[in-house]
Every structure is written in structure tokens, then in C-alpha cells.
Design brief:
heterodimer, A: alpha/beta, Rossmann fold, 6-stranded mixed β-sheet, globular, B: mainly alpha, ABC transporter involved in vitamin B12 uptake, BtuC, 14 helices
């Protein structure tokens, strides 16, 4: 069987538009040609047209992939590109809706993790699956059948550790270990099964760069010694370049290209990962972004250098910067409860009427920034000023001048079991109370007003929040936060999980908010969202802002490099 | 990134507008029908099983059920007995509701009730005073006692992060031991030998002075309607109002439904959660105080007599709604009254217990099912909208 049946793009007619740029010289090459000679006739792992659909989202769209024995394969892509879903199908955790997975030529039963494990596929998950209260050897032995002898299990851990350079104390309790050590346990647990294919999902997200280097040495050692294959899922360009033999780039659920790592550069990979520049605008047009921009800027110029100047002039003259800066974040540093560094000297500023987009790969401090500005996390150092006045941090302030749309609107942005009306007045009960008593009539009146103003579709004011669609839930959150007239609106992943119509609507609303003079801090891992809305873009990486650019003059290559942690 | 008109344009067709319409109009009506139908069916099934049981053990189901009905609602005096049983059940249930609304499971109500009553008895015996002072003082002491006992669990929870389910449960047994200790020590609450008309096998305290007894609302041939029912209904109505209309109640619900969101809006868990636990214990204590000065008049081991457990059940069945707890408490009171009469007719006490338990299960199951169903539907709605 040929290792890669065909370039998936050739088979999918709807991809025709994207097709031309995929063969741009020097960037990507179809998988068969350049490496065919250097490869063994049969691949260890073959994935044929694997497809997975979640509701309306096609997470993986007929992805084909072939990984050889003795190879470290990188799987590169943005959040939501389908990397994890693809590998979960391989390891049997997720049952594919179409296509098949073959290991060494024999097909694996779909959606059967035990069969995949027995066939020799081991996966180290992004979020550890260790029992914190148990010791290292207990965790490694977990899932074994029959009688477990502790002495044997301990020896085994020590032996694997020595062989692959993964030293660990088998008797240590997992909860006492550092993230890097915990990952080591995960890898040992995986090696314990003598896997022929090891999949690592974002293994370095919890590691320092030194620890990452050690990990890559271990992986290389494993591949060389045992002739097994490794699939390394990552969105960090640097480590893909450093650790892999070949790299497959996924974008929007499709395998875009497979390149020999030696021929790739960080810049070419960044371009592959993000897609060509034009496609961003095409998409913007396709889903109604043009309309958004028109609403935002009645002048009619969507893009181009003139626009930011207009907007700057409209909001405030750049000269009296102090006046115009609504939100100023200075040198924020914070640690999580487990002592991990979340933010390291992060600074940013947002002007009145401006939308600042904070772009970055998930898990680089975005959550901490949101929590900090919501008063849920106290900083170690640094301060936050709103309209020139320092605001207290570390305690939620009901009268805060920062409105927050948290990324988890269901978890902490709203109370799903309460009614729509109650959710609309959650943070401003004073408005609907008389002499210390909530007046239902006032609640309903206030809610009706906001429902009308924000076009919220609800069966009734007293319908439970959970009965609303995602878009309407998000509009409730937006309405509630804006109805307090905040100086700053913080919107974190405001369109996550929404359908296309609702995304368009939310984008238009956020643009309007900025036009009305509110400073908008947009934190998103969706680059197209940032590019569609932001006036300026800051890139966050490992808890700090690593670069900034004007959205009118976006350099996609540089943006991709910065998001991937490369200095640019 | 990649233009994908085919996939994206397909999406809006699946918009959930029609689905939402359905949720809005038809479901609440169905909800209203499902519960009563289910309730009737499950009670009928329970009675059938109970009949089989009675038949099998040589009793006549007809006699037994008629005795239960006679004993609970069959006459004015039976009705009053039912209501008198209902009083502590309802007050405890209000406590369960307050904790339950904060998503806290206070299963220490039995112990808090007894501990509160011990406080009340101690104060009432130590400070003999005229009735109009003694009664409020005893009730207040009981309230404080119950709250103190719940505060221990609250301190564990918000100080050390220990689940209130465990601490409240275990503190029950501690409370019983403390009471047992107190009524067995002459320098504490033990009955003075001079007063003891007979040697009680069940250690107890002295009787409270008559001035400490709550008045009766009405009395007649063989019955006395206790004043406690007024207290119980006022407490239930007050709790319902506070939960629905006060800032505290709003925050309590918000915290109970979604503590993460609540903390984002400035609700501190230990303030709302702690106050809910304390108030819940205070209600149990009040129930103890009403029971004490209503008719028991002394503290003894076994004082709580399962009112705490059953009150928790009443709160659960009422879906933690204090007003719904009123009819539910009446039903449980009727079971107690009917069971008492049944036992007097010579039916084995164990059988009486089984019949009561079957009816309790029959009444409880539909509420649990409704809770389960609404969780399911909510989960589905969330999944569909993801």
C-alpha cells in the first residue's frame, strides 16, 4: 500500500480554492515525491481519510497520514486544527466517523482504546491522566492485570528510567512531583507497554525549554534504540524544527502538507500553519466580516493604512496619550496555586475606542490575564490602571470599571439555572431593589429593556438561561457587562463554540462597543477573530507580550513566528 | 483560515430556533403533568407492594390502611396529631432548604436539633423566668445551639476544606454523645433524684417549668393543637421570601447553582456557604426548641426522634422549596400519626415501619426523577448548543 494514498486536497473538491497556494514553491510539497526514496516500502502507521464531525464542526476532514518506523513526526497546527482529534482517533479514544487506521498494515477496530493499546499505540495526553494520591510505581502499574508485585513494578520503573534517561523515584507520590516529573511518569507509563508508536500531545506545554530539550533527546533515543515511531503534536515551531524528521501541517481539519523538517524553516511552517494571507480576508468576506467592518467604519474603507488613522483621530488624538489610554497594564507577574509562572512582566495598553487583540496559542497566560483583570487572581507584581487610576486587584469588585466576558460563559459568565432576567441583573442588584428587597417587576422591566437593546431571543424573561442558544447566552453576558457602562470591556474567546451567524453578530457588537468609545481588550486564540476586529495586535507567549503590530500592516509570517515562540 | 463555504454555510440551517420554541412552550406543560401522574402511579405501586407484604404476614391490608387514614386525617384529633408531628419536620425542612439552595448537604440536622434543644433546656432550667420571657429565651438558646453545632462543620469546610457531608454526619454522633454525657452527670443536666417520679431507663433532664411551655392554639377532646405550627409556617414563608427576594437569597442561589460564577460576582464562598450552614443549623435548633417547649419539656437521649432525618427528606422531596415543604411535611406528619395508631392496633412495629418506608419512597422517587430529568435535559441542551 502506498504510504499516503493521495494528497487529501486532491480528493476534496471543496478545497479547490485553497489548492493553488499549497504548491507554492519552496513551502510545501506533496508527501509522496521528495521522501519516497528514503522511505521503507510500508509505513508503520497509516491513517486513511479519517473524519470526525462534532455537531457542525468538522474536526478532521478526510485526513490521511503515514508514519514510518524510526521516525519522529511532527503534527503542527493552530488550536482546533484537528491535531488532537486525529491522534485520539489513532489511539482509539475517539471513534472516527469515517476512514480507518492501520498499524503495520492491519486495521485497528475503530474507537477501541484497549485494542489500540494492545496493538502497540501509546499516547501521552496533554492533560495528565495520573492519580495524584498514588505513587509513581502505582500509577505505572495501574491498568495492569493480574497480581501486581510492588518490587517488580518498582524495578521496572527504575529500569525504564535508566534505559531512556528518565530518572524518577518510583516511591514518590505523584502530587509531590513537578509538572516535568509528572510527564516523565506518563512517558514511563506509556513505555511500560512496549509501544511501537508513541503519541505525545503538546508534551512541552508544561515544561521549561531546558526540560523540553531533555525530552527531545529521550524521544530520539527511543526511536533509535527501539525502531518505534513518535508522533509529536505541537504548535511550537521551534520544537517541531528541533525534534522532528518530518512535519505534517494541519489546518481547519485538513492535512495541508507534509514536509521533511530539514527543508523547512520557521517562516515556511508559520505560513503553512496560518494559511496564506489572502485567505484570511476571503474568509472574512465569506462570513460577513465585510459587513461588520462597514458598520464599524461607515467610511467604507475596510482595510488599508487609512483606517487606523481615521479611528485614532475619531477616538482621541494620539498626542495626549494619557487621556486616551483607558486600560494600562504594567508589568504584571503572577503565579498559579501550584507555583507555576503564569504571567511574567506582562504590559499592555488599550486606548479609548480601540480594540487591542491579544493573540497567542492557548495556555500562554491568557486565562491568568483574564482572571487577574476580573479580580480572581492576585498579582505578584505590577499594577492595572483604568482611565489613569490604579484599580484594586485580587478581589472581585462589583463596581469594577472593567466589564468581563469570560471565556467560559457557561462556567463562570452566567448561571445557567437562573432565569434570563436574573442573569441580566446579576451584578447590579441595586438597580432592581427597593429598601433591601428585590422587586420582580423591576427585574423584568430592566431585563426587557436589555433584551430589546441587545436583540436577545428568549422564550420569556423567566426562561432558564440554559434554554438559550449559545449566541443568545453570550449576548446576555455582553448586555449585562455593558449595561454598567464600563470603561474597558475584556472579551475572552467571545465567539468560542458559537455558530457562524452568532459569531458575525458578536463581532459586529464588539466593533460597535469600541466605536462608542469603550476600550476593548480582545483575547483570543482564533487568529481570524483578532485579525477581523483588532486595531492593534499584541502577541502573548509564555506569560508576556512578545511583540506587537498594527492590524493594518499585519505580517503573517512574523505573527506566526511570534505565536510559535520564535523571536521576531 | 481556509475558506470553507460548504461547511460553514451548512451550519446556520441547523440553528436551534425551532428547538428553543419547543423548550419554551410545550415542556413546562408536560412538566406539570408528569409529576402528579408519576406521584400517583408510584404511590399506587407502593400500596400494592405494601398490601402484598401485609397479606403475606397475615394482616389485612384494608384494616391497616384504614387505620393509617383514621389515625392521620380521620378525625379532628387525628388531624391535630398530624399537624403536631408536622411542626418539627417543617422547621427542619426549612433548614435543609437553605443549605440545599447553596448546594450544601447538611445531614447533621438531627444532631443540630438535639444540640439546640439541649442548649434550650440548659438555659430554661438555669434561668427560671416568667413565660413571656422564658419561651423566647429558650427558643433563642435552641437556635444558637443548633447554629453553633453547624458552625463546627462550617469551620471545617471553609477552614480546612473538609466536605460538610462528612462533618455534619459525624457531628450527629458527637452531639448524641454530648447530650448523653450531660444527662448522666448530676452537675450538668441529670434529673435530680428528688424530682424523678420513677427511675427512667432513658436518662433525662429535669422538666422545664410550666411557664416555659408554648401555649396551645386550640384544645379539645383528646387533642391539643400546638402553637409551633404558627412558628413553622412563618419560618417557611420567611425563608421563601429571603431566598427569592433578598440580596442574600439571590447570592445564595447563585452560589448554589454556580460557585465559580458567583465568585466572579463577588460572592465569597465562606460568607454565603457559611451563613447557609449556620442558618440551616439554626432552623434545626429552632425545631428542637419548639419540640422542647411544645410538649417534651425535657432533654434526653433520643430526643430528636428522627425528626431531623425526616425533615431533611421533606426538604429534599420539596426540591428545597420552603413553601413546597409545607404540604410535604404534612404528608410525613400524617405518616407518623397514622403509623402511631397502626402500632396501637397491634400490627408489628416492624411492619408499620415497612409500610411507612414504602410510602416515603413512593413520594420521594418522583421528585428525584424530576431532578434527574431536568439535569439530563440541561446537559442535552448544553451539548446541542456546543
Amino acid at each position: 500500500m502506498p504510504p499516503e494514498p493521495a494528497n487529501p486536497g486532491d480528493e476534496a473538491p471543496e478545497e479547490a480554492q485553497a489548492e493553488p497556494d499549497q504548491h507554492e514553491p519552496g513551502r510545501s510539497e506533496p508527501e509522496q515525491s521528495p521522501n519516497a526514496s528514503a522511505r521503507e516500502p510500508r509505513a508503520l502507521l497509516t491513517v486513511e481519510r479519517a473524519t470526525k464531525v462534532y455537531g457542525r464542526i468538522v474536526a478532521c476532514d478526510a485526513v490521511s497520514l503515514a508514519v514510518d518506523a524510526g521516525e519522529i513526526r511532527g503534527l503542527l497546527g493552530q488550536n482546533g486544527a484537528g491535531k488532537s482529534t486525529l491522534m485520539k482517533m489513532v489511539s482509539g479514544v475517539v471513534r472516527p466517523d469515517g476512514g480507518r487506521v492501520l498499524l503495520d498494515g492491519s486495521q485497528l477496530p475503530p474507537g477501541d482504546p484497549i485494542a489500540a493499546l494492545e496493538a502497540g499505540i501509546g499516547m501521552v495526553h496533554q492533560h495528565f491522566s495520573l492519580v495524584r494520591a498514588l505513587t509513581v510505581w502505582e500509577n505505572v502499574a495501574l491498568g495492569e492485570r493480574g497480581r501486581i508485585r510492588s518490587a517488580e513494578a518498582i524495578d521496572r520503573v527504575v529500569e525504564i528510567g535508566e534505559r531512556y534517561g528518565l530518572p524518577i523515584d518510583p516511591r514518590a507520590r505523584v502530587e509531590d512531583l513537578s509538572p516535568a516529573q509528572r510527564q516523565r511518569v506518563e512517558i514511563i507509563k506509556c513505555l511500560r507497554q512496549d509501544p511501537r508508536l508513541i503519541i505525545l500531545d503538546e508534551p512541552t506545554s508544561v515544561l521549561t525549554s531546558q526540560e523540553s530539550r531533555v525530552l527531545f533527546d529521550v524521544l530520539r533515543e527511543m526511536v533509535n534504540r527501539r525502531g518505534c515511531a513518535v508522533v509529536l503534536i505541537s504548535h511550537r515551531l521551534e520544537e517541531i524544527l528541533r525534534a522532528t524528521d518530518r512535519v505534517t501541517v494541519l489546518r481547519d481539519g485538513r492535512a495541508i502538507s507534509t514536509i521533511a523538517t530539514g527543508t523547512a524553516t520557521a517562516a515556511s511552517l508559520a505560513n503553512e500553519m496560518l494559511g496564506r494571507e489572502a485567505s484570511l480576508e476571503d474568509e472574512g468576506a465569506a462570513i460577513g466580516l465585510v459587513a461588520v467592518q462597514e458598520r464599524r467604519d461607515p467610511g467604507g474603507t475596510h482595510e488599508g493604512p487609512a483606517e487606523p488613522a481615521d479611528r485614532a483621530a475619531a477616538s482621541a488624538a494620539p498626542s495626549d496619550a494619557e487621556e486616551a489610554v483607558a486600560l494600562q497594564v504594567e508589568n504584571l507577574s503572577a503565579r498559579g496555586p501550584d507555583g507555576r509562572r503564569l504571567l511574567e512582566g506582562l504590559s499592555l495598553r488599550v486606548g479609548r475606542g480601540e480594540i487591542l487583540g491579544v493573540a497567542g496559542v492557548e495556555g500562554n497566560g491568557q486565562d491568568a490575564l483574564v482572571e487577574l483583570l476580573s479580580g480572581l487572581l492576585a498579582p505578584e507584581a505590577g499594577r492595572v490602571m483604568v482611565s489613569g487610576r490604579e484599580i484594586p486587584l485580587g478581589r472581585p469588585d462589583p463596581h469594577s470599571t472593567i466589564g468581563v466576558i469570560p471565556s467560559d460563559r457557561r462556567e463562570s459568565g452566567s448561571v445557567l439555572d437562573m432565569t434570563v432576567a436574573e442573569n441580566l441583573v446579576l451584578n447590579q442588584l441595586d438597580r432592581v431593589m427597593r429598601r433591601g428587597v428585590i422587586i420582580p417587576r423591576l427585574v423584568r422591566r430592566r431585563a426587557r429593556q436589555l433584551v430589546r437593546q441587545f436583540d436577545i431571543t428568549a422564550a420569556s424573561m423567566d426562561a432558564p438561561m440554559w434554554s438559550l442558544s449559545g449566541g443568545n447566552q453570550q449576548r446576555v453576558v455582553l448586555a449585562r457587562e455593558l449595561s454598567r457602562n464600563p470603561a474597558v470591556l475584556l472579551a475572552a474567546q467571545p465567539t468560542q463554540g458559537l455558530d457562524v451567524g452568532a459569531i458575525e453578530d458578536m463581532w459586529a457588537r464588539l466593533s460597535n462597543v469600541a466605536r462608542d468609545g469603550t476600550a476593548v481588550l480582545l483575547i483570543s486564540t482564533e487568529l481570524d477573530e483578532i485579525l477581523a476586529l483588532a486595531d492593534r495586535i499584541d502577541v502573548i507567549h509564555r506569560g508576556t507580550i512578545v511583540g506587537s503590530m498594527d492590524s493594518a500592516a499585519v505580517d503573517h509570517e512574523r505573527l506566526g513566528l511570534m505565536m510559535g515562540g520564535q523571536a521576531a | 483560515m481556509n475558506p470553507d463555504p460548504a461547511g460553514r454555510e451548512a451550519a446556520p440551517r441547523e440553528e436551534e430556533l425551532p428547538d428553543r420554541e419547543e423548550t419554551a412552550s410545550s415542556v413546562p406543560l408536560r412538566d406539570k403533568l408528569v409529576f402528579p401522574v408519576l406521584l400517583v402511579v408510584s404511590i399506587v405501586v407502593a400500596l400494592l407492594i405494601a398490601s402484598l407484604f401485609l397479606e403475606f404476614t397475615g394482616n389485612s391490608p384494608g384494616t391497616v390502611f384504614s387505620a393509617m387514614i383514621r389515625g392521620s386525617v380521620g378525625s379532628a384529633s387525628a388531624l391535630v396529631t398530624t399537624i403536631n408531628h408536622m411542626i418539627p419536620l417543617l422547621i427542619v425542612a426549612v433548614g435543609a432548604c437553605i443549605a440545599g439552595r447553596a448546594s450544601l448537604i447538611n445531614i447533621g440536622l438531627e444532631g443540630q436539633l438535639a444540640f439546640g434543644a439541649m442548649f434550650g433546656a440548659a438555659v430554661g432550667l438555669a434561668l427560671p423566668a416568667p413565660g413571656f420571657v422564658a419561651i423566647p429565651v429558650i427558643l433563642a438558646a435552641s437556635v444558637i445551639g443548633g447554629a453553633v453545632w453547624a458552625a463546627v462543620a462550617a469551620a471545617f469546610k471553609y477552614g480546612r476544606g473538609i466536605s460538610e457531608v462528612i462533618t455534619t454526619l459525624l457531628l450527629n454522633f458527637v452531639a448524641f454523645e454530648v447530650i448523653s454525657f450531660a444527662v448522666n452527670r448530676s452537675w450538668l443536666l441529670q434529673e435530680s433524684p428528688s424530682e424523678a417520679a420513677y427511675v427512667s431507663l432513658n436518662p433525662q433532664s429535669d422538666r422545664l417549668p410550666d411557664t416555659a411551655q408554648l401555649p396551645f392554639l386550640a384544645s379539645g377532646e383528646g387533642f391539643r393543637l400546638q402553637f409551633g405550627i404558627v412558628i413553622a409556617i412563618v419560618v417557611a414563608a420567611g425563608a421563601a421570601f429571603a431566598i427569592a427576594r433578598l440580596r442574600w437569597g439571590f447570592r445564595l442561589r447563585m452560589f448554589g447553582f454556580n460557585p465559580r460564577a458567583a465568585s466572579r460576582f463577588g460572592v465569597r464562598p465562606w460568607v454565603i456557604g457559611g451563613s447557609a450552614l449556620l442558618l440551616s443549623g439554626a432552623m434545626a435548633g429552632l425545631a428542637g426548641g419548639v419540640l422542647l417547649s411544645g410538649h417534651v419539656m425535657r432533654i434526653r437521649t433520643g430526643f430528636a426522634n428522627n425528626y431531623g432525618w425526616e425533615g431533611l427528606l421533606v426538604g429534599l422531596v420539596a426540591g428545597f422549596g420552603p413553601l413546597y415543604a409545607i404540604p410535604v411535611a404534612f404528608l410525613y406528619g400524617a405518616l407518623r400519626a397514622g403509623g402511631g395508631v397502626l402500632a396501637a392496633t397491634g400490627v408489628d412495629q416492624a411492619l408499620v415501619g415497612i409500610v411507612q418506608a414504602l410510602i416515603v419512597i413512593a413520594v420521594t422517587l418522583p421528585s428525584l426523577y424530576m431532578i434527574y430529568r431536568s439535569r439530563q435535559r440541561q446537559a442535552r441542551a448544553i451539548r446541542d448548543r456546543a
